[in-house]
Fold this protein.
Amino acid sequence: MSFYTRDNYRQAESVGFVLNKARNVLIGDLDAALKELQIKAQHIGILMSLLRGTESRPAGLARYLGMDTGLMTRMLDRLEALGLLVRSRDTVDRRVVNLQLTAAGREAALRITEVAPHVLNARLRSFSKAEFDELHRLLNKLISG
């Protein structure tokens, strides 16, 4: 089924526009809440992936988080400069770079687990449980295509 046509497409009413606007609102809220840690919302995925052991290599992280490797490199540079992670060459394959949280990085990631739920819950406060579940289901359906 086609929802948009050349005649009815209005950017400000499109799903893509509204999703991007919602994303920007959440990022703004998270950036403000994380300011004391000197990190941005865009760093959350990296720090949480390393904390949870989801991914530990730059290329894998870039794929998992859906970003290009150039942006990943710049973000890793920033987090390394802040002393939140270290890069090291793999002992078996020197071409491979491994990432590891420092003690400060682990502390920052654990702080994210306290801050992010509060920020997200504040934005979702007017949702019922059923609405939250439906939003989550529909977003996952949109992502999976």
Notes: The chain has a mean pLDDT of 95. DSSP finds six helices and two strands in the chain. Residues 90 and 96 are 5 Å apart (CA to CA).
